[in-house]
Amino acid sequence: MATKLPPDLVLTPLDGDSRDLSQWLTTFHLASVVLDPYTNESSWILKTAVRILEELRGSDVRVNLIVTADADDTHAFLGPLTERFLVFCDPERSVVKAMGLQTLPAFVFIRVDRETHAIAEGWNSAEWRAVAESIADTTGWNVPTIPTPGDPGSFVGSSAAG
């Protein structure tokens, strides 16, 4: 179910200045993978999430990772990926709560109108593919191949509440 996110919802980039969601959406939609670095489930999907975001990078979305940790733990979890992606820290899980997420990892497509147009929680390749298809339909882009050999089997995920 689509949710209209509040315009004053704050997104804090790793090593950057916080800005309201509306400021992040002035030009591009957001394709966000939301991860909890304190759980196995988020580490299981990291390689697949990176592949999917890389395939969407040239479309009219700002690909990013949202991590439910402070900057130090986010750096420790993502390592060199912090140099390849826009990364937001959400240690208080305010963004997770605003999106209405119950389970992590999650793949979320936020359109420039602040609507969460498509969401997949946990890891189910068909559900993540549906989010990718929504992004591709909206932006006129190619749908990434989901799943591919090496992707994990389906799993429920962990509680988004932490």
Topology diagram in text:
Elements: E1 10-13, E2 19-20, H1 21-24, E3 29-35, H2 40-56, E4 61-67, H3 71-78, E5 86-89, H4 94-99, E6 103-104, E7 106-110, E8 116-121, H5 125-139, E9 158-159
Parallel strand pairs: 3-4, 4-5
Antiparallel strand pairs: 1-2, 1-5, 3-7, 6-9, 7-8
Query: How far apart, in Å, are the first and last alpha carbons?
Result: 22 Å
In the CATH hierarchy, the architecture is 3-Layer(aba) Sandwich
The whole-angstrom Rg is 14 Å
Question: What is the top-level CATH class?
Answer: Alpha Beta
Q: Based on CA inertia axes, which overall geometry fits?
A: globular
Care to count the β-strands?
A: 9
| Number of discrete domains | 1
Outline the structure in words.
Helix 2 (40-56) links the parallel strand 3 (29-35) and strand 4 (61-67). The longest helix has 17 residues, at 40-56. The chain has 5 helices and 9 strands. With 162 residues, it is an alpha+beta fold. The two termini are 22 Å apart. The protein has a single domain (10-144), classed as 3-Layer(aba) Sandwich (Glutaredoxin). It has helices at residues 21-24, 40-56, 71-78, 94-99, 125-139, and strands at residues 10-13, 19-20, 29-35, 61-67, 86-89, 103-104, 106-110, 116-121, 158-159. The strands form 2 sheets. The protein has a 7-stranded mixed beta sheet with strand order 2-1-5-4-3-7-8. It has a two-stranded antiparallel sheet with strand order 6-9.
